Amino acid sequence: MSSFFHNPKSILFDLDDIMAQENKLNCIKQESNMLDSNVILDNGLSKQEQLDKLKVSFTDCDKCGLAATRTNIVFGNGNADTRLMFIGEGPGADEDAQGLPFVGRSGKLLTKMINAMGLSRDDVYIANIVKCRPPNNRNPLAEEAQACIGYLRSQIQIINPEIIVCLGSVSINFLLQPEGKIKLEISKLRGKWQNFYGYKVLPTFHPSYLLRNPSKKREAWYDLQVVMKELGLEVPK
């Protein structure tokens, strides 16, 4: 097992709060502003081809002020046919420089978390609420999240994962409430299933928080065990 986890004990969570919905793809399509108006998804293409088409559609995006300070758009990266998707808040300096999500210190820790699940980064897909780096790594503003959320929702619709893991309070808040009206505390939400148009969403701590608070790694491991059980993956004893 990865050194990220230190002999954690298993724990079971009550899954009665899962809000199952049928026809989730239809539900997500019907939401206003769910897809960018310039994007037309083509089911005749593979998922990766659809993601590539979506990425090209906002190469020169200037919908919010982040466009003025970015080096690269950080679209997302990973397996388009995955069952598991991770969503963070936004790119940092390393991500902005390379155009890839989670490649800095937090990214190295996220990689260890994924490896501890018996998976690799090539097995999952990783994206963020916003695709451009907020100055000084501040949290995205509501207007920035609103401008970018349609692209993220398009990614979710294309990939159609079984489970989404939201990393941190910014990620879960803006995914569920992009207008930013409700502030949900990650300490109260982590490890508890949430519903997003029929998709099962599990919030947990952001890797950057775990770097600052290593004692919380055990709780993050509990959360990931819940995901593993739901996916039918073997949980280490």
Keywords for this structure?
alpha/beta, 9 helices, 6 strands, 37% helix, 11% strand, globular
Can you characterise this structure?
- The chain is of the alpha/beta class and 237 residues long.
- The protein contains 9 helices and 6 strands.
- A 6-stranded mixed beta sheet has the order 1-3-2-4-6-5, sandwiched between helices.
- It starts with 23 loop residues before the first helix and ends in a 6-residue tail after the last helix.
Please give the structural blueprint.
Blueprint: H1 24-30, H2 47-57, E1 77-78, E2 84-88, H3 93-98, H4 105-116, E3 125-128, H5 142-159, E4 163-167, H6 169-176, H7 186-189, E5 194-196, E6 199-204, H8 207-212, H9 217-231
Parallel strand pairs: 2-3, 2-4, 4-6
Antiparallel strand pairs: 1-3, 5-6
Helix pairs in contact: 2-5
Radius of gyration: 17 Å
What is the overall silhouette? Answer: globular
Main sheet record: 6 strands, mixed
Q: How do the strands line up in the largest sheet? A: 1-3-2-4-6-5
* Secondary-structure element order, N to C: HHEEHHEHEHHEEHH
| DSSP helix fraction | 25-40%
**What's the total number of strands?**
6
Given the helix and strand composition, which structural class is it? alpha/beta
Counting copies of identical and different chains, the oligomeric state is: single chain
User: Strand fraction band?
Assistant: 5-15%
Secondary structure tally, helices: 9
Global mean pLDDT: 85
Q: Note the gap between the termini.
A: 10 Å
Poorly predicted residue ranges: 1-38
